[in-house]
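Customer escalation, tier 2.

The customer says the design service returned an amino acid string that "doesn't look like it belongs to this structure." They asked us to rerun it and document both sides in this ticket. The original structure tokens are below, unchanged.
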């Protein structure tokens, strides 16, 4: 009986979820309702799915509005009607145009005009599918209106937006946020009515008893509407099912691809390879996943044709078919990868590949996918109102000053708050967790059989690609499975490094970066792993990862794959990381593993490291089926379909183990290991895929370090700051040069062993100015002097001052102070106003100014660099004004194990962490005066006594701990050293 209901996906308007709406219907004895969110279909499919559980007939539609002005409500008679209204709404969302007063003809839909809108438009004729909506509050007006004669067109339109006064308060806050206004100044025209709530069916019919035909019309409309999507057990794969014209053609193409490419991966394929290939092909064909492989192959083929690097990872790397046809670069035979982790007949969802491209190439690949296939869209995700966002938005709504809002966002105690601040927190709880706006999923692309609008309306975010309005959870439930196309900087570093090497070393031999087998066996490359020299290499450069590899003495591919997984919090938190290191470093410790577990996982010494290990243990240790093992696998990824399902498998795991007469101590030790993986475990193929990319980066770091570090800097770095990557480049033998008018580009460039910093580092230098400089230099050649530069480049005194202060004119051999005076005399506001872009016929004769000798201090240059670049290329230790006490260097730490020593270090990175008891600690990485690293830990007892206050030189006094040959310091005391101030101050 309710044809105009809102959920909180009527963004910044509705006040409860679609599930709460269904619960409300049950409470009011309503057996059929229409969800019609405002210009949004995010909740529609889940509403249909959940309605079955509540035994309520679901109807879906859209409340079409311009701002808060309701134009009409469109309700779908069936799935075709839903597609039509989705397509219609999308046309306005995409073009960002206003919705008209009356829609075009939309087949298989009902159009309901609100009573007041009909009066406003003075409508006197209605199409067969058009109705007039009447709310309870409008019954009196109807009695005296010309519209009461349209008996067959009148229906009940009692809007449902709120449940009670609390909801109404939340609604008003949302409207104030949406209008960016104080709550006290929110116009009532921006609010719903206080009466826009649901009544019991009996009360609703009582209100309209004078107009029984309106009740009958409403019931008839509801009866004529049916919407269906197959969910869960009833769902079917909605992705593009055929790549070619028929399933037979698809199968033939996949088999041909395997035949054509086998020799590229296996020159002399063994029987094991052939058997594995046949096994996989049978499962892929039987389960009808052929088109899935061909679509991914098509995307990779396009990327390779355009010289776009890629990494195929995730569980897809477990497939030999994917390896042979080039989707992945990980050999599942070499690594004994578990194909059933990727595809098995018991999996609830089809397989998936995660494919990484360079962040520079990803949009081009995405555009290709949109052009290549018919029904394509990006997947959505919801940004919700989280605590800090709620506090900031409501703080503005209540008129709090910024200082108060900042204080509130830090979760201060109630005793420190005034009444208004307490109101912000009180009302904030009403909307915390609500969806705030629809965003774009970081990777998901949908390639479907049916038109995208069959499932959802689409909008056009800044990325410029059509995006649906539902997220991956509901997509998965209805059988819409995403293709993951991601962007990362590691691949861009590799590609750019190769280009820089070619330019800087034109005689260097051609590099085959795909020859990873050679890299895996290179002792020099592996030495970078075990000595912590992987700075700049994607995925393996963090302090924690470098420390772990030094503890493991990682010096081969398999070791790197394992390290990539055991560093994850699941393995680490369960204590199994420590156990793995012991068993890896000291073979006699492997005997401590339980014989059954050691037999199941010999490669990892009986320790569960990968998701596949959990499946193997569940299957071989506890006799669970592959389907049940997959429930565990999904559970530890946080993707189980229900807690009940997971609990049932847990119960069977324990029961089966007891039947096999295992002791409870062993059973629960193994089970707790499985549980500790929750949300963190990797598929082995996923780690192996990243390890391939890491080896490619490490090859470049090992043999072309200066060019590689330049590429790292040009792609926004990675785990560390630009300043630290510049330090690393120096350690690799590079000379760092400040931006130069005649040598620098927008990005960093290399000439021999000199890295010229790019103009892009100058924070306040305008892009247009950089463009002018580079264009002029390219066309007319290098600049000879400051006068020559001023003649040729249109520039303001403010912008020119930046270039002079950074010493970009040092080729003139004149001091910066003299150049600044010269620029001031020769370039003034008047000249800029009258300067034209027309080329001069004659070179201007410049006046010569005699400038007296000006004295400067080297520290001025340091502070100019910090001000303009954000860092200095000078040695930071030279700035310290305090005396250095006798101290030790980082390389000598091992000789002082379990002793207290003093180290001086420049801060590289720092972060807070929690101890196993939940207490705060701080982890920091420093470099000493020789440029070598040391790690330090401020434990709970000192973390607040000795804070880390930003970049600087710190005196660190503490005890040296030695874990498996890797030394770090437990801080007893630390202090930031004083540095020289700018002499100009």
């Amino acid at each position: 009986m309710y044809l105009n209901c809102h959920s909180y996906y009527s963004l910044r308007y509705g006040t409860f979820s679609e599930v709460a709406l269904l619960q409300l219907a049950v409470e009011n004895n309503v057996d059929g309702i229409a969800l019609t969110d405002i210009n949004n279909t995010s909740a529609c499919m889940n509403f249909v799915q959940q309605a079955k559980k509540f035994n309520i007939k679901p109807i879906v539609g859209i409340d079409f509005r311009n701002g808060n002005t309701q134009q009409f409500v469109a309700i779908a008679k069936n799935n075709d009607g839903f597609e039509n209204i989705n397509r219609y709404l999308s046309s306005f969302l995409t073009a960002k145009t206003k919705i008209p007063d009356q829609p075009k003809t939309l087949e298989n839909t009902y159009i309901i005009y609100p009573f007041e809108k009909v009066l406003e438009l003075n409508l006197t004729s209605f199409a067969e599918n058009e109705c007039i909506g009447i709310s309870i509050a409008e019954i009196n007006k109807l009695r005296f209106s010309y519209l009461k004669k349209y008996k067959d067109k009148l229906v009940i339109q009692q809007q449902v937006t709120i449940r009670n006064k609390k909801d109404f308060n939340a609604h008003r806050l949302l409207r104030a946020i949406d209008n960016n206004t104080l709550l006290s100044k929110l116009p009532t025209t921006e609010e719903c009515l206080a009466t826009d709530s649901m009544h019991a069916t009996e009360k609703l019919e009582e209100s309209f008893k004078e107009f029984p035909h309106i009740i009958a019309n409403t019931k008839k409309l509801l009866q004529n509407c049916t919407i269906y999507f197959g969910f869960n057990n009833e769902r079917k794969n909605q992705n593009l099912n055929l790549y070619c014209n028929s399933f037979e053609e698809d199968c033939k193409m996949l088999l041909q691809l395997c035949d054509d490419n086998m020799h590229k991966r296996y020159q002399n394929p063994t029987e094991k390879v052939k058997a594995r290939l046949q096994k996989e092909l049978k499962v892929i064909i039987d389960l009808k996943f052929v088109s899935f492989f061909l679509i991914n192959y098509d995307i990779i083929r396009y990327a390779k044709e355009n010289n776009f690097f890629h990494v195929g990872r995730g569980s897809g790397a477990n497939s030999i078919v994917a390896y042979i046809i080039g989707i992945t670069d990980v050999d599942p035979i070499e690594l004994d990868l578990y194909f059933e982790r990727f595809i098995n007949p018991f999996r609830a969802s089809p397989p998936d590949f995660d494919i990484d491209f360079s962040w520079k190439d990803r949009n081009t690949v995405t555009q290709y996918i949109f052009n290549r296939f018919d029904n394509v869209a990006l997947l959505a995700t919801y940004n919700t109102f989280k605590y800090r966002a709620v506090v900031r938005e409501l703080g503005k709504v209540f008129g709090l000053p910024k200082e108060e809002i900042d204080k509130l966002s830090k979760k201060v105690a109630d005793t420190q708050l005034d009444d208004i601040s307490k109101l912000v927190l009180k009302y904030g709880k009403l909307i915390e967790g609500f969806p705030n706006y629809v965003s774009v999923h970081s990777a998901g692309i949908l390639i479907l059989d049916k038109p995208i609008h069959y499932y959802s309306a689409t909008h056009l975010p800044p990325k410029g690609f059509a995006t649906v309005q539902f997220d991956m959870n509901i997509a998965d439930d209805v059988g819409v499975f995403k293709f993951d196309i991601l962007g990362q900087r590691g691949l861009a570093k590799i590609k750019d490094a190769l280009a820089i090497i070619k330019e800087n070393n034109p005689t260097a031999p051609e590099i085959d970066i795909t020859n990873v087998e050679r890299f895996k066996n290179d002792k020099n490359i592996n030495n970078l792993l075990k000595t912590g020299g992987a700075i700049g290499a994607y995925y393996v450069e963090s302090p924690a990862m470098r420390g772990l590899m030094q503890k493991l003495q990682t010096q081969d591919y398999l070791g790197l794959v394992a390290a990539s997984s055991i560093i994850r919090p699941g393995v680490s938190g369960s204590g199994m990381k420590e156990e793995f290191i012991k068993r890896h470093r000291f073979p006699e410790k492997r005997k401590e593993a339980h014989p059954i577990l050691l037999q199941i996982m010999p490669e990892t010494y009986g320790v569960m490291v990968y998701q596949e290990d959990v499946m193997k243990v569940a299957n071989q240790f506890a006799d669970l089926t592959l389907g049940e093992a997959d429930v565990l696998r999904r559970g530890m990824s946080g993707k189980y379909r229900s807690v009940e399902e997971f609990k049932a498998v847990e119960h069977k795991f324990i029961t089966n183990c007891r039947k096999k007469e295992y002791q409870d101590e062993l059973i629960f030790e193994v089970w707790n290991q499985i549980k500790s993986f929750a949300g963190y475990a990797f598929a082995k193929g996923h780690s192996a895929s990243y390890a391939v990319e890491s080896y490619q980066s490490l090859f470049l770091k090992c043999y072309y370090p200066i060019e590689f570090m330049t590429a790292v800097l040009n792609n926004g770095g990675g785990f560390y700051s630009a300043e630290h990557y510049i330090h690393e480049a120096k350690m690799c033998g590079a000379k760092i040069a400040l931006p130069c008018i005649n040598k620098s580009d927008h990005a960093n460039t290399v000439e021999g062993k000199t890295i010229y910093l790019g103009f892009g580092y100058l924070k306040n230098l305008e892009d247009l100015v950089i463009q002018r400089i580079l264009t002029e230099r390219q066309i007319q050649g290098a600049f000879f002097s400051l006068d020559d530069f001023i003649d040729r480049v249109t520039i303001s005194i403010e912008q020119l001052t930046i270039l002079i202060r950074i010493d970009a004119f040092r080729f003139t051999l004149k001091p910066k102070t003299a150049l600044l005076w010269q620029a001031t005399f020769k370039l003034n506001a008047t000249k800029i106003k009258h300067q034209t872009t027309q080329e001069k016929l004659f070179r201007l004769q410049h006046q010569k100014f005699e400038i007296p000798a000006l004295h400067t201090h080297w520290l001025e240059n340091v502070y100019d660099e910090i001000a303009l670049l954000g860092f200095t290329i000078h040695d930071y230790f030279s700035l310290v004004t305090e005396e250095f006490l006798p101290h030790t260097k980082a390389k000598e730490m091992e000789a002082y194990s379990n002793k207290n020593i003093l180290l001086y270090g420049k801060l590289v990175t720092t972060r807070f962490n929690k101890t196993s008891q939940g207490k705060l600690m701080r982890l920091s990485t420093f470099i000493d005066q020789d440029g070598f690293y040391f790690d330090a830990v401020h434990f709970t007892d000192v973390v607040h006594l000795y804070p880390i206050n930003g970049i600087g030189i710190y005196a660190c006094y503490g005890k040296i701990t030695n874990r498996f040959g890797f030394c770090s310091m437990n801080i007893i005391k630390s202090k930031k050293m004083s540095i020289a101030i700018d002499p100009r101050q």
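Tier 2 assessment: The sequence is consistent with the input. Residues 832-838 have pLDDT under 50 and may be disordered. The longest helix spans residues 684-703. Sent an explanation to the customer and offered a walkthrough call.
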